[in-house]
Amino acid sequence: MASENSSAGKTWATTMMVLGVLGLVVAVFGLVPPYWSTFFNTPSRADVPGARQDAAPPVPSDTAPRPDAPAATYPPPGDRAPANDAPAPATSQPDPPAADDPGDHRAPADDGTREEPNPPEEPEALDTGHSGPLNVSIDMGTRGKVGPATYRRGATPGANTKVYDRAGRVDTGCYVQWTLSRGDTVVQTDTSDRCRPPGATLFNFGDSLDEVGGYRLTADVTTDWGEKGSATATFTVVAGD
User: Fold this and answer.
1) What CA–CA distance (Å, rounded) separates 219 from 233?
2) What is the per-residue pLDDT for 48?
């Protein structure tokens, strides 16, 4: 019986010793961490490699490219400056042409002389076979004539022109404008397409001489080559059977 109590007492003592050691260990681990950093320099999370850190806000920079800035252009490899920043070789420029060089376009020096312009060429005269001014006359007919430059009333003497220049009498290419007047009144007008009668009378009076009085017949002549002339014949118309 005494032997059993002794064994039980040893067991209890052992148990209490173990519990005491465990309690001491717990107490040590509970008190040591607050003072751990005092004796040892424990690195912070920022010093630990691989630890995540909050990114600092970006610092604005004046050199940063703007979104609307044009893209930088770079010269082709052949146009880039040498790596050692050596100056590019100077290109030789041709000397300007001398004053007597044919390539010089400067105005020549004024020596005071003036070149007269060529006079305008005169148009060549048409070779018409005619020359000189016109000599125009009126040839009155004799029908109804009763005296010198006098005709009876109702007469129809008729009239032609005679036109001459230095080459002779003019026929075609010559035109006549006839005007018959009595006093200040124009009685009759007519035209002829030639100046020489073609076998018929150029100007016919018709019934233009039915009134007594003084008459004037004018022939204005023009030609295709520009010459002009005129003639007038005056006569009197009297009453008669």
Assistant:
1) 9
2) 47
